[in-house]
Design goal:
By secondary structure, the protein is an alpha+beta fold. It is 26% helix and 28% strand.
Length: 304
Amino acid sequence: MVVARAAKPQPHNSSDTMVVFERDAFLRLLTTRVVGRRLEYHDRVPSTMGLADALLKAEGAAAAHGAVVLAETQTAGIGRRGRSWESAPAGNLYFSLVWAPAGGSDPAKAMPELVRLNLASGVAVVGATAAAGVPGARIKWPNDVWAGVTPRKLSGMLLNFGGGGAAVLGVGINVLEDMRWNASATSVATLLAPQPPPPEADAEACAAAPPLPTPSREALLATFCNELERLMGASTEDVLAEYREHDLLRGRTVRVHHRTREEDDPRDYDAEVLGVDKDGMLRVKGPSGDALLSGEEVSITPQL
């Protein structure tokens, strides 16, 4: 059964173009049994993660499992380690998914499945962007997807498990917003939509190049849901194998930050990334030898 509820969208983005998520088009592209079959669509909310968590508490894990809460903009988006997530009304994707692990509310039983969910979410974003005609996206541990010749951040994910029988996965994908002129954006922001050529580009060559399609948000979200359900039906080992195929960091040198990327700490150091293990930890080789890093405790800046 498909459940789709919507608040009336308003015309809003930086170019005053009507931006509306076509839920019927999304549902036609969905091949899942559970994930995304219930879509809660809103114009403007404080946080999709907050609404998904409220849905979980009101209805319980079994009823809310697989539900997606989507908004055109968030006024109080939640980022990793307490950071805010800027969610401008520019035709991007801001959504949260409720996932009820088979282990229920017992963290020890639920954690292996939630580790798989965290790994699978990055792989699903990569698969969705590739289907949209943007190949080559890579996963930056612990919860980002980067893209581009010089890789820059395209997507961020955050998984919260409060022990209430289900987790809430928040995902943001920058689809249409040109971040180059946004003074509040980080230096690593990029977008899926084709960008205009730089002023110094050869006009004749640009005219001869085939036009790039503007990615469909409906197809992006549907492919993400389809990929995520497929991956969650596989083993953690199989998901980890796909994750490693798209790992941005393996073999690279990174800076390990113990506070934030913007704040130096005497404990910070450079390390070579050896890979991600079955528990979602980052294996690195640093000045003191091999170490396992938790995304809850450190941040990583790759040296690209």
